[in-house]
Backbone:
């Protein structure tokens, strides 16, 4: 049985450790569990070209304390490197770029292990991949050569390694995150404004009894008691009253809800110095959000309806637990209770009692899910109660990333997919133009892809646009192509002036975003992009696409 | 061959990538109005000021953007909790001044860049000091400091002297979120106009702290505000002293135990007392780079920048990275009644039965004022002055009088000043509720 209530922490003999003090500001975001995941991570960067954006990304991973990094870079440090890359200095001139980067990046955090390649002429990316400990994630930057790219894709497929592609040139950049298959996130950290499940329309006996006891003579309560009724109890009381006068039905539409809200407002006592009661204000404010019939959140629905290709024994624990929650949901018509209660005006004793009622029910539900999960997993697999707890607490907010749409949908990463997205973006642009909304950044993504396709620094705007045409193949109508060329014209021209070089600011900004996404993938917290983010450094905007 | 001609850039091959872009007009700038040959020389001469917690990122970025004469102001010394993101500092630097250490590091790493550090507060300097800079980039950690530099730069701006108009580029972060904005003093929305984007956090009611705590935060704040005041374990609270935090933590724990509340930890105690904001290198990278990107575009004119004056031209980028990645880049409109850059008085709804003291206290929480020590004058008459002490004593009796009694009516204009914002007068036009 899992303990959701945290015991009082015994007084510390000494304060937080030095590591806890160093990482304090980030531990507040992803806690010790996230930090542990980071510290076990082994990250590979395959670097090329102006070589800055991948390095800036690494900086933002080394500082928070990933376990290990390796840089593979065939270049020797030249003059131009020193004008764009912060992690190289005059002493590096002529040396293997990978070596110098590893050294200067390594200084950022003595707890992180760093290595570099190739050390000899015989070292290739292939040999590095073979002899290295398993990589947690691999990132590469353009202009990577296609042989190396192929070995990375091969490795990623074999070991199910997330692969991240990054391209930064001039004022533009994009990066694509490809997790290995469908990627579930339980710990999505929903915003504070997200609805807490108070189960007011479906209360369980203990909660009903508690509320009834507090309100059985509500009008006879003295002003102090009345003014300290927790708003959960107030709402339960008046919902009961409503049911009695509405044939057992709850307020169901907006009109009824506002009527109900007014009923609650009117119930507040006004014959006091404040002219009202704070707890009744809280109750009225909570009506629209909490007096709402249950509907299965879309993220969880997607999880329940997911079509697996592998047998249950091969699935991750996430899916085992998800199945168990599905069983729970099918049986009870509701999800396991998350169990947290927002703060509200109430006497301390009463509030704690209310909290415990919710926590007890949550624990009970989690125990039931745990039992079911263990039965599904079978004798050979141990189900971690803490994992079940986490899922039950976050069930309403779980999310799947990188789901291959089945059926007629175009496969991710394919030419057809590019065309599909392009057409959708062009259609959006027509509306955007009329409604003064910002235009699509997809032409920027295509231009960068086109530049990589050309593969050379002197590609001019015409060549870039031609390359994009090849990428999309000839399935575009001449009208569509004309439209595209018009939108890409300026972008391709601006891109061409950079001659495949990087601007430090754009690479630093992109490096920040890529690191943030890699942290989400490694810690399995917060919601990663799905799957490509484009940055426009002229307009200072981003846009996410699924390509 | 590239279609754009390579105009004379810096001699060194070192700045090839930067020069390819900054000396060419690109697709979004009118080539007729653009002279790429002077960009490098001009930028070499620009004095740029960076300050604040995003300082490491800003200095690195500016140095690699072609700026040669950079000044940095920061009053802080290096703390161990900075090391997870302020990457110019090492363990051995803990206790030293940030500005100094950062300046030395970047000067050594990027040759040809001069960085002048100032280990003090931005408020320690006057208009004459700020006159020497062409661009100001800020990554400050308080709204007060931002309002101060904004007011200073707006006050200095005189459209008859273009050199006095100094673009202010401001960035801030919190966890996975942040914003970058560009202010052209007097020509568009300023920090004061944008005060409504930062609502002050609601304080926990005193009765909750005193008698009905429910959350661990209530117990901690009780220890911080009530128990400390009563027991005075040390003469002055030092929020950075682990011994002080431990005292508060133990007290909060005792209180929590009394009310059966779980969840008080050392970490949460520190968080509440110091109002700690989570911070990571990644988000700081994004925001600092967005700011410095604008600085490069402003300095070189090689591409359109945020804050370009004009209808619908965006000046503000909001960034959010916790749920996918979102930016919202928009134009925040200048407010006519902005106390700093506007022309008209701001409407203020008051209760005529309020005492002057109640009015004065209300300025602290009023979102569009947020003034902690306001002094008030009305149509030539001084109603209450916080300083100097002699004047304070003289005007103190007015505090008890109601606004009605003081002769204030609907439409009266009052002028409010605050020592935190020297040179700024907050003009309000009263309306009786």
Residues:
């Amino acid at each position: 049985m899992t303990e959701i209530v945290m015991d009082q922490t015994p007084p510390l003999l000494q304060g937080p450790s030095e590591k806890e003090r160093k990482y304090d500001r980030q531990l507040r975001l992803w806690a010790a569990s996230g930090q542990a995941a980071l510290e076990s991570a082994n990250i590979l960067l395959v670097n090329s070209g102006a070589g800055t954006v991948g390095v800036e990304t690494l900086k933002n991973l080394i500082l928070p304390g990933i376990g290990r990094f390796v840089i593979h870079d065939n270049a020797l440090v030249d003059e131009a490197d020193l004008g764009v890359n912060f992690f190289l200095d005059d002493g590096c001139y002529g040396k293997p770029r990978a070596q110098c980067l590893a050294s200067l990046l390594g200084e950022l955090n003595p707890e992180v292990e760093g290595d570099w390649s190739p050390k000899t002429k015989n070292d290739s990316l292939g040999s590095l991949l073979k002899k290295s400990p398993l990589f947690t994630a691999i990132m590469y930057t353009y202009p990577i050569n296609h042989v190396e790219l192929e070995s990375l894709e091969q490795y990623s497929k074999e070991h199910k390694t997330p692969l991240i592609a990054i391209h930064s040139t001039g004022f533009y950049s994009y990066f694509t995150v490809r997790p290995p298959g469908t990627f579930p996130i339980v710990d999505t950290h929903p915003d504070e404004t997200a609805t807490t499940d108070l189960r007011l329309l479906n209360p369980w006996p203990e909660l009903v009894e508690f509320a009834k006891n507090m309100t059985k003579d509500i009008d006879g309560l003295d002003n102090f008691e009345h003014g300290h009724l927790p708003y959960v109890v107030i709402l339960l009381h008046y919902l009961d009253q409503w049911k009695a006068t509405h044939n057992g039905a709850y307020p169901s539409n907006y009109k009824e809800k506002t009527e109900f809200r007014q009923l609650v407002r009117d119930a507040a006592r006004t014959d006091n110095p404040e002219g009202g009661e704070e707890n009744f204000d809280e109750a009225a404010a909570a009506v629209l959000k909490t007096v709402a019939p249950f509907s299965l959140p879309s993220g969880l629905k997607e999880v329940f309806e997911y079509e697996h290709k592998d047998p249950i024994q091969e699935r991750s624990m996430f899916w085992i637990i998800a199945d168990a929650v599905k069983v729970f949901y099918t049986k009870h018509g509701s999800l396991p209770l998350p169990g947290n209660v927002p703060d509200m005006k109430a006497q301390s004793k009463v509030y704690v009692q209310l909290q415990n009622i919710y926590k007890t029910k949550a624990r009970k539900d989690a125990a039931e899910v745990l039992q079911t999960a263990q039965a599904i997993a079978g004798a050979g697999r141990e189900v971690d109660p803490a994992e079940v707890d986490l899922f039950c607490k976050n069930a309403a907010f779980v999310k799947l990333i990188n789901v291959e749409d089945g059926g007629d949908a175009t496969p991710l990463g394919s030419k057809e997919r590019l065309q599909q997205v392009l057409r959708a973006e062009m259609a959006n642009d027509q509306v955007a133009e009329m409604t003064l909304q910002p235009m699509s950044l997809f032409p920027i993504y295509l231009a960068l892809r086109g530049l990589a396709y050309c593969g050379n620094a002197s590609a001019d705007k015409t060549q870039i646009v031609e390359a994009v045409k090849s990428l999309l193949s000839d399935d575009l109508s001449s009208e569509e192509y004309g439209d595209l060329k018009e939108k890409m014209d300026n972008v391709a021209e601006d891109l061409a002036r950079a001659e495949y070089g990087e601007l430090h600011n754009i690479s630093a900004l992109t490096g920040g975003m890529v690191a943030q996404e890699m942290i989400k993938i490694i810690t399995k917290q917060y919601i990663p992009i799905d799957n490509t983010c484009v940055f426009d450094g002229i307009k200072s905007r981003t846009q996410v696409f699924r390509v | 061959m590239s279609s754009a001609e390579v105009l004379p850039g810096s001699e060194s091959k070192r700045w090839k990538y930067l020069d390819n872009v900054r000396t060419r007009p690109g697709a979004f700038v009118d080539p007729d109005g653009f002279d790429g040959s002077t960009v490098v020389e001009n930028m070499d001469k620009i004095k740029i000021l960076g300050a604040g917690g995003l300082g490491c990122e800003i200095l690195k970025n500016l140095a690699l953007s072609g700026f040669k004469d950079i000044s940095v102001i920061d009053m802080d010394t290096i703390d161990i909790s900075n090391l997870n993101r302020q990457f110019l500092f090492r363990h051995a630097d803990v206790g030293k001044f940030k500005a100094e250490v950062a300046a030395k590091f970047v000067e050594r790493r990027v040759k040809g860049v001069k960085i002048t550090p100032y280990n003090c507060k931005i408020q320690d300097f006057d208009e004459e000091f700020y006159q020497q800079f062409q661009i100001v980039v800020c990554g400050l950690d308080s709204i007060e400091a931002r309002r101060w530099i904004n007011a200073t730069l707006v006050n200095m701006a005189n459209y008859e002297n273009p050199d006095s108009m100094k673009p202010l580029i401001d960035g801030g972060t919190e966890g996975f979120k942040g914003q970058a904005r560009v202010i052209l003093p007097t020509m568009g929305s300023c920090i004061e106009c944008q005060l409504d984007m930062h609502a002050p956090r609601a304080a926990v009611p005193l009765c909750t702290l005193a008698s009905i705590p429910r959350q661990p935060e209530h117990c901690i704040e009780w220890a911080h505000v009530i128990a400390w005041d009563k027991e005075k374990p040390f003469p002055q609270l030092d929020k950075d002293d682990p011994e002080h935090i431990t005292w508060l933590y133990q007290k909060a724990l005792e209180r929590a135990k009394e009310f059966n509340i779980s969840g008080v930890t050392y970490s949460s105690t520190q968080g509440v007392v110091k109002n700690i904001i989570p911070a990571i290198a990644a988000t700081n990278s994004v925001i600092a780079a967005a700011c410095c990107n604008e600085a490069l575009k402003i300095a070189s004119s090689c591409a359109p920048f945020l804050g370009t004056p004009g209808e619908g031209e965006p000046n503000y980028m909001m960034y959010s990275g916790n749920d996918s990645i979102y930016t919202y880049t928009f134009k925040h409109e200048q407010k006519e009644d902005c106390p700093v850059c506007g022309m008209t008085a701001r409407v203020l709804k008051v209760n005529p039965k309020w005492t002057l003291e109640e009015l004065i206290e209300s300025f602290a929480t009023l979102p569009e004022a947020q003034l902690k020590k306001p002094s008030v004058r009305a149509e030539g008459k001084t109603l209450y002055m916080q300083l100097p002490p002699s004047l304070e004593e003289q005007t103190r009796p007015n505090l008890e009088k109601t606004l009605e009694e003081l002769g204030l009516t609907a439409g009266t204009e009052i002028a409010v000043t605050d020592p935190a914002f020297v040179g700024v007068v907050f003009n309000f036009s009263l309306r009786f509720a």
In short: Chain A touches chain B through 97 residues (CB under 8 Å). The two ends of chain A are 44 Å apart (CA to CA).
